Amino acid sequence: MDLQNTILAKLTSSIPSPPMRLRDLIRQIRAARTAADERSVINKECAYIRSTFREEDNVWRCRNVAKLLYIHMLGYPAHFGQMECLKLIASPKFTDKRIGYLGAMLLLDERQDIHLLITNSLKNDLNSQTQFVVGLALCALGSICSPEMSRDLAGEVERLMKSPNTFIRKKAALCAARIIRKVPEFQEVFLPASRSFITEKNHAVLITGITLITEMCERCQDTLAYFKKMVPNLVKILKNLIMSGYSPEHDVCGVSDPFLQVKILRLLRILGHNDEDASEQMNDILAQVATNTESTKNVGNAILYETVISIMEIKSESSLRVLAVNILGRFLLNTDKNIRYVALTTLLKTVQADYNAVQRHRSTIVDCLKDPDVSIRKKAMELCFALINSSNIKSMSKELILFLEKSDYEFKSICSSNLCICAEKYAPNTKWHIDTMIRVLTTAGNYVRDDVVGNSIQLISEASALHAYAVQQLWAQLLINDLENKKPLVQVAMWTLGEFADLLNIPYVDETISTNEVEQPLNVSEDQVIDVCEEVLTSNLMNIVTKEYTIEALMKLSVRFPDHAARIKKLLDLFSCHMNIELQQRAVEFCTLFTKHSNLRPSLLEKMPPLPKLNRKTDKESISVLSNGDLLNEQSEQQFNNNKTSTNKSSSALLDLLGEDTIGDINNDSSSTAAITTNGESVKASSNILDLLGELDLSATTTVTNNNTTTPSNTLIMNDKNTLNNQLNDLFGSNKLKLNNSTTNQINNKSILNDDLFSDIRTLDQSVVTKSVLSTITAVEKNGLKIVFNFEKNQDQTAPITIHLEATNQNSSNISDFLFQAAVPKTFQLTLLPPSGNLIPSNNTGSVKQTLKVNPSNNLLRMKLKISYNLNGNEFLIEDTKSFPVDTWK
What is the pTM of this model? Predict the structure, then answer.
């Protein structure tokens, strides 16, 4: 008996004990009270799993891998189990394969070379006679396939798409969609089999087939054109879903298969985009879906949302678009916050397409400004700004100012800036504009952007008839507001007091209002004005910028109020030793005007002329030719002179395209330099400034000229028929042409400059002046900014090629400080004309245009682009290199 017990004990000790079950591991992990206890449990179990993997324990490998996957889901490393997953996949047991494929989908990805070892096992399982094994292989392939694996197994997937088994067909269709994402050229392989899915009766197979077709249509225009013939079939399927009765198998909250309806609507949206025939075929069914779908359940709202998006994307009828906007209006009244947010987002995208239809729901949108959810308030604010026009500017601005007063701090900056932009664009009169700007300054407080301060000062400056009104209103705000929290308001008020403080006691009479009452003067003493300025200047809570405005205002008040000049000088003396160097320098210089140049002070501190509009709109040079052909518009000359400064800046920006800091003086040696000439002034940059593409031959000298100037490098020698053509091009510019003797004699002839000038031009060779428009190229499309190049050339092969640049803004906020820079290799010649502005309106409501002229010298133009702009207070910089084949332009 003792011998038997001994033998039995030895036999049982040689049998390994079974590992911990997955449920027991989960209980232990959940029982851990601290993160350290949890790590201890997991580390202990991982050590045990590693030991069993080294011992090649085939009995419990499936259980160990399952536990390892749970550990991986908790965020702990589990990469050491990858090879064990491959061993389970190769196992003949279905339970092992199931865990193995699940582990492969979680632990492997296409970036790891080890996942290629699974290809052979996948191919074997795809040919299995068991549908569940085939389904496992298809799911794994659709999850982790790489381009190499897709090429090896695409044929097997295409074969399974034709299988009579619906379980396999639906999984094969989804796997094919994944393969197309990885290798788009395989669309031709799956195209014949995918067409048969349209006629499928099984809903599961039909929905996967439509998913595959949608993926193919989004990636290939030829496939899109191929499936446009199937629009009637899709319309029929969707109509049957709407009209069909109750089906327990497909019913979801009273709606027949909403998932399939959503998939069909998305495919119809793609097929009908920019296609009138396809859109006409689906107009009726979209109207039926929009009117017959129940909107009380979330399932119906999902279908209605997809219907609205489809209506807006295709070329639908106007009445159908109004119906879609009305559906979104009903969404705004829904109690669910997600539905309201979706409605606001969709309305914001469609407001430009159906502006009047969205306007009908303006009151509901304004009510969303009071919603407790911050995301809804933000979208409602953006949509309100998109709905503002000249007819509703007063009511909308009043609502937005109320919103600004109670809004969160992160909204105040954006809202105040957009309010100022809308007020400038749609203001009914200047007085209302000034009142609105003051209300924005007082409401937004210190969250006002710097551009609002500058625009407010410019507005007051140019409103000469309202100077007294503006200074009186700002003075009243200084007396009733907490100045420390209204620094931008103080800055505007200080500038206005410095200019127009002598108008404080002059009553303003509004001529547009007929009244017998006479407004009483304010009776503000000069001492009161100085006291307020002194309070601001000596306050420790005021920033340096506000004190700079104030110290300049005090200096101007010394002229406006000559009796208080001595007191003002004492205040300035206090800042002659200030720690801030800017304030110290201003104080010292202003005190010098009192002591050494007192006689010049009144003339130096006269009232400033109206300030031009800066950073908002660039004046274009416009030239008017009278009937006799020999006169120049005087206004054009003045604009040309004013644009010289901005032209110099543009040239400097081009020189700084690659960030070079030093620019030397121009010299006679031009073999290794690129000269950039503006307004007759030449500078020389080191050769690597425009050496954008090192592999190109940049030995030749490139001269980049502004449209208003000429340098020796682009001196024209005019003769024959080109003489008159070049005279016409330069007749009203500032260019000075070097002419030969015969040309000089022609110009001196009065008949050439008068009536005969245009008659001779009509006799020129028509091929010289004939232009043709070339293809359009999207040069940049990033962060909502889109820049398109439109090419135009003369049939004359020697004439420069003109590139018309148009920049648009797809964002919901305006793009400001837009600057486009370009440079070309030295073998080309580039001319940059001034842009139409530097502010791109939001939502594609406007654009900035600029013209480039290129003289190509070979068959490939390579251009370095550098675009900088400001969006929502953030600065963006885009740098790119583009290549354009010149030989296709000839």
Answer: 0.61
